[in-house]
Amino acid sequence: MTNLEKAIFQFAENRCYSASLKETSSLFFSTEEITQNLTISRTQASRELNQLVNNHILFKINTRPVLFSLREFFMQKYQIEIAEEYESIENFQNQLNNVSSEKVFEKVIGYNSGLAEAVEQLKTAIFYPNNGLPVLLMGETGVGKSYFAQIMDEYMIREGILQEGSPFLTLNCAQYANNPELLSGILFGYIKGAFTGADEDHKGLLEAADTGVLFLDEVHRLSDEGQEKLFNFMDKEVFSRIGESKERQSKVRLVFATTESTERFLQTFLRRIPIQIYIPSVSERSLFEKRQLIEYLFKKESQNIKRTIEVTPRVMDILLQTSFSGNIGEMENVIKYACGSAIAHSDKSRQVEIKIKDLPQKIYESFDSPVELANTEEENLVFSDQVSFSTSTNTAGELQKFVQHLIWLYQDYQKETGYTVKYQLHQQIVKFMDDVIFREKQRNQAALEKFISKVMQEIFREIDSHTKFQYDGNLVLLLSYYIYHYSLKGIHSTDFFDDDFTVFVEKNYQTELNQITPLLPEIEKRLDVSFTKADQLLFALFSPH
């Protein structure tokens, strides 16, 4: 990049990442703005802007005037590919509107496994009528409570529950714990003369966050009086500034966070918060999720330092076996330190390699026993500074890809015998089943998923005991996975099957269909789900044969 290109890039970054700008329209800029801000000619500004578009750094909308913005920002925010050019604002906005709001939660590692139950609780709070339900996020320091609150806000905006640009305000109650009067003033506001130093009327955060979200961190540091004022507000949706009798209204969604047990709160306060969500510590996460967290942080750091990062298998093993008492926050600091150390010892190339020597000393000191290291023949893990999308599996996309692959196989081999086609399909199905079973054993299951597995085991054992149907543990696990990740979320294989493939399965998998179909009404009744004809066909394909 030339110095001028860097200056324009910096301008675009400042525009997009400014905390005060949330409206989509405010994230764009024109050639004229660059001309004025960088004091260059319009011709030069236009040439440099178009060069940055050609280099995939900016994109443009061909309105009058032409508008530009940062591709990376929108790709990260919406988890989609952004084209170089759009014909109109409407075309661009349509692409954003078509992005499923569920993608917001895909940014939460463990959203479909260890944190699946937490995500469902959050949705319950969000969609409850009349301004939702208050939420209490519980967990150790650094587990991601504030990030979870931000994800909640982003999801509500994407769903249209909150307006884009609505306030998201944060207060750490611990900062003012020794001055409860000041804390009350910040929260509820005050009028002139209410107390010493109150020289003018002051709007509190409850009022300022009207139509948006107020996130109160370390809420256990609120005094009993402060908690009482808050639960009175939750009951009536009215409050008064300190020193006045006038009642004020605010339609604000409340999210609380604490590192303490619920015993620290007034029970009358807790009773007003029906949604209490526990965020697990890093040590409570599965090894699979812990690895995802580490990989996500290396990807993020790669983008921060604008370099490709290589991590040796030995480093990954050490990080996986480290107990991070400070959770994700400490993990991120360790990874930043390692990257900084590697850069300091590198030749300033575009690529840095993280080795054991780059880890901070406290990591080695934390091990009481020898670390089990990986085979030295394993390849380094590579994290590119190019924008990466979701770190989690997109379950709907996974199902679509799997079914589409089966259809392609069928089309490729349909001129062969039915046996040949079934053999090819079987190979692909076994691979899919193996992948699912391996993943399931690597991660923590949500409580609902465990319940589904238990019910499914009971149903299959009952059938096995008085029919010729043979119990198959892998099939039970796979069907439980399907029900939890697809059926309960309204995703069905019907969306991806085609007519020719449907006819083929009905004709060639009669035995399997006859075995699996009688089970489905009982599963539907006990788990409160419904299956389509295409679901039945897919289950027949999964059945042992």
Automatic annotation (TrEMBL):
PROSITE patterns: SIGMA54_INTERACT_1, SIGMA54_INTERACT_4
Residue ranges of coiled coil: 75-102
Gene Ontology MF term list: ATP binding
Pfam families according to UniProt: AAA_lid_14, Sigma54_activat
Sigma-54 factor interaction domain segment(s): 108-340
UniProt-listed SMART domains: AAA
Keyword Coiled coil annotated: yes
Protein name from the UniProt record: Sigma-54 factor interaction domain-containing protein
Source species: Tetragenococcus osmophilus
